[in-house]
Write a structure and sequence with these properties.
- There is one protein chain.
- It contains 1 helix and no strands.
- It is mainly alpha-helical.
- It is rod-shaped, with a radius of gyration of 31 Å.
Length: about 70
Amino acid sequence: WIQWIPFAILAWVTAQFIWPVIAKALDERAAKIADGLAAADRAKTELASANQAVEAQLAQTRTESTKLLGDAEK
């Protein structure tokens, strides 16, 4: 019986003072991970957009260079 008293005190102290700190740290970490994943998704989207712009510019440059070569041959 007497062993339950220190256990109950330890459980109460843990529930009141230690567990909220641990829970807060875990919540902050989860938020940071979610923010990191969202940033990675945004970067992936921006990269795809930049790649499309580069491909469009390359296509335009190829067209212009082909036209200039055709004009030079004439």
